[in-house]
Amino acid sequence: MSDQDDELYSFEDDAKDASSKETEDTGVIPWKILMVDDSPEVHQVTRFVLRSMHFLGRPVEFISGYSAMEGRQLILEHPDAAVILLDVVMETDSAGLDMVKFIREDAGNRLIRIILRTGQPGQAPEAEVIQRYDINDYKNKAELSDDRLHTSVILALRSYERLHNEFIKRQASERTIEYLAYYDVWTGLPNRTLLLDRISQVVQSAVRHNWNAAVLYIDLDQFKRINDSLGHEIGDLLLKTVAERLRILVRGEDTVAHVSGDEFAILLPNLKDPEHSARVAEKALAAIQQPYQIEGQELHITASIGISVCPNDGSEGLTLIRNADTAMYQSKASGRNTYSFFKPEMTARALENLRVSNDLRRAIARNEFVLHYQPQVDLQTGRIVGAEALIRWQHPEWGLVFPGKFIGVAEETGLIQPMGEWVLREACRQNKAWQTAGLPPIDMAVNLSARQFDCGRIERVTTEALAETGLEAHHLELEVTESMIMQNVDQAIAVMKMLKTIGVKLSIDDFGTGYSSLNYLKRFPLDKLKIDQTFVRDIGIDEDDASIVTAIIGLAKSLKLKVIAEGVEKEMQLNFLRDGGCDEMQGYYFSKPIPAADFEALVRKSLVT
Ligand code: C2E
Ligand code: MG
Ligand code: MG
């Protein structure tokens, strides 16, 4: 660059070209220095004096203006200029100071460093002005030696560099703040705020162009179980993987958001047919259902999805989200791992759920729960060999409420824990009471809920219930379901082994409806399989169901497990089961679940006959 500056007395502003050429050649960005002075000689001298100047490895680029007006133009054109060398007196005595004001106030450029220069003594700005307008230096042109100009500019560049870095940092932190306001840091997905924002944009164009948009509200099923049993770190990793799976599932124009905790949403902005959202929901369910490998463990989880469609189900972000959320609860109520479209009548059901959960909190304290007992009958001897304890809620207004109405709510709210513990104790107490009353000893089956199974307390709670009531462990049978143990197989095996050391029996309830594989089944320390009533119901009607029943009986035998059929209502079913080698049965054919006193009477009667 110094070569070009040899033309000391040329008035052409060629330094600029020279430096931009240098930029092209080396990729180094020069410092921009504006020089505004009505004296062409000053431009020439300054360029010469500073011709080989470098700061932090970067050369300087001069941009010249010869009047206050040109100076203003340069300020606006070069907001990234680092320093301005500014003549105080140009068209007017105060031209330079007016320009300082312009730079700081009108152009709002707080970064550029200002070096004022004047030809005459006595024109120095007042200290107050220097401070207010953040003027870096003041130089008398006559005094200027090479060194002092050089030093002054270097100091100005250093000061600019520092301010500029601070500015960049501040900008970055402002961007971070904005990011935090609109994104979930952990999953990197848009958060609820951004989702609402996008919905409101989408809704406008959907209404204008008369097309549909949909919101899918996705809630992981029983995610709390994973957090409770494996810890938040595993839970968080799982959420991250779910987020990733959802993200790659959708198209670029769709939004996947992390709404909160274990809740996600997908916004589909442009649907020709609202039914298409069901395809996306199916894909999401399938993606979430795939096994997860997290920290060496295989985990399983499913999700429930609710869908609301704009403009039918609302034309406002909050309404669409709320309605999709309501539909999601419907999916939970229909057994999870499914999707539902919002329907207006669901709002009523959501309100009912809310009432149930409110009343449920008081039910334990008010002793409103009762257990009914359903006999389990040996198919060879016809004797009652066991009972299953089934909970009922004696509600002061609604009368007898069945578990289908409140177990789900109790699980979601966590009330299942105290409720389940009460069931366990009460069932043990009752069984012992029957023995004390002289009835032949039977086994008492108690249903466990998923949350009870893996909260880490079940072993202690069981031991305590047995100790408190004096019931022998082998007269208590705990029922678990396939989905409970398949969510985390290794942990389930550990819990079950612990329970076996106490001496209780273990059975798998509703067998055949889950996805246990034979491989796993062999590893579980089980005593009994309970064939789900859906297969039993269709014996004699559906050949497939009959052969499933036969297969389950065969499977149980090969694993040396007892097998019991649930939901036996007809003699024909009973005969089929007995002929097929089934050990026990339970169902309306013999007896519905009944109160303890009726059960006792039934046993006594069966002893006589
Ligand atoms: P489950 O454990 O599979 O219980 C069998 C259900 O089938 C009971 O319904 C019973 O009344 C019904 N059932 C029995 N025989 C027949 C029959 O011949 N035909 C028909 N159609 N149904 C029959 P219930 O009492 O309404 O209980 C439903 C579910 O609620 C239970 O299914 C169980 O999963 C859950 N549950 C019940 N009590 C408790 C409890 O104390 N704790 C937990 N966690 N869950 C419970
Ligand atoms: Mg059961
Ligand atoms: Mg069952």
As laid out across the biggest beta sheet, the strand order is 14-15-17-18-19-20-21-22
Strand count:
22
Number of helices: 23
User: Quick check: average pLDDT?
Assistant: 89
Integer-rounded radius of gyration: 40 Å
Query: Which compounds are bound in this model?
Result: ligand C2E, magnesium ion
- Unreliable segments of 5+ consecutive residues: 1-24
State the end-to-end CA separation: 117 Å
Shape: elongated
Structural class: alpha/beta
Percent helix, as a range, is: 40-55%
Beta fraction of the residues?
A: 15-25%
Largest beta-sheet characterization? 8 strands, mixed, barrel
Structural summary, described in words:
It is a single chain. The chain has 609 residues and is an alpha/beta fold. The protein contains 23 helices and 22 strands. The strands form four sheets. An eight-stranded mixed β-barrel has the order 14-15-17-18-19-20-21-22, surrounded by five helices. Strands 2-3-1-4-5-6 form a six-stranded mixed β-sheet, sandwiched between helices. A five-stranded mixed β-sheet has the order 8-9-7-12-13, with helices on both faces. It is elongated. The protein starts with 14 loop residues before the first helix and ends with a helix. The chain binds ligand C2E and magnesium ion (2 copies). One magnesium ion binds next to loops.
